[in-house]
Amino acid sequence: MCGRYTITVTLEELMLRYDTYYQYPARYSPKYNVAPGQQVMAIVHDGEKNKLGELRWGLIPEWAKDEKIGYQMLNARSETLAEKPAFRKPFERKRCLIPADSFYDWKGTGKHKQPMRIMLRSREIFSMAGLYDTWTASDGTRISTCTVITTESNEMMAEIHERMPVILPRELEAAWLDRQVTSPDKLSPLLRPYPSDQMMAYPVSTRVGNVRNDDELCIEPLSLLL
């Protein structure tokens, strides 16, 4: 699964990368340890252009009775999006991009799991494929949430974990956001493992396992911290 990631660039870099606008610039800050349940940056298409805003990580389907279900919907398996009730409609009409410049996963088993930082060799921002939905609480409060889509791991990631987030090549981002496309047959082929030779990984401190740790030490190579 994908349970932690980073987005350490400035707001200006983010807006330039996605040719978009943002309504709440004062609330943005670089993040070194994004965790489930937090507000995360996401890009949707409003019918005319890309829009950058915040969604809460952990999808709450519009029909849910309790918002706690969101903690069970952090990730969505690409292979079953068209079948699962929570993801079927968002897959057709509510797709988003979740910007990141790396994500974390844990290598190994038991008490000896080693956190790894995984990123593109170019160290550029990339887009994780996501879905979003809006849920209305009994008091009328509306909460917009999202989930990260995962797929089987490529050769490099397979040494760390069997699943990885779907990273969309830049040339396919517009197709994923296109609201005119609703057919799973056209969308599913976009959800494939990113090329292994364009990615890299290195070990980092176990401090990333604590959500309270959100600073540059999270991304320091372990060899530099010892």
UniProtKB/TrEMBL annotation:
- Could you tell me one molecular function GO term of this UniProt entry? lyase activity
The yes or no answer to whether the keyword DNA-binding is present is yes
GO BP annotations listed: protein-DNA covalent cross-linking repair; proteolysis
What InterPro entries does the annotation carry?
SRAP (IPR003738), SRAP-like (IPR036590)
EC number(s) per entry: 3.4.-.-
What highest taxon heads this organism's lineage? Bacteria
Alphabetic keyword roster: Covalent protein-DNA linkage, DNA damage, DNA-binding, Hydrolase, Lyase, Protease
Question: What is this protein called in UniProt?
Answer: Abasic site processing protein
- In which organism is this protein found? Paenibacillus ferrarius
